[in-house]
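Example record

One chain of 109 residues, shown exactly as stored in the release files.
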Amino acid sequence: LESIAAHEHHLLEYAVEQVRDIPGLTLVGTAAHKAGVLSFVMDCAHPHDIGTILDSRGVAIRAGHHCAQPLMRRFGLPSTARASFYLYNTRDEVDTLVRAIHHVRSIFA
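Predicted structure tokens for this chain:
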């Protein structure tokens, strides 16, 4: 289990490094010790549009309030886009996610 948690953590760290400088992308939930979940919003697209566009590029994410609607409302977020990482994911898949996010920007920005 420790190896799985370490792999998940390294993927998340790598993903954060890759997306942190994407213009208009804001990470949501940046605790130091958290599960392999990358939640974000973009100033150019609604999370549901992000999810649809990423899906068309072969990247599966979730978009919505993720059973946390009261918290989302408190922070003024209608929803977020959320990519999850686990033991079966790879850095190449993170790279694919990042390319797809850049594609979203190219459509709306």
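Notes: Strands lie at 25-28, 37-42, 62-64, 80-84.
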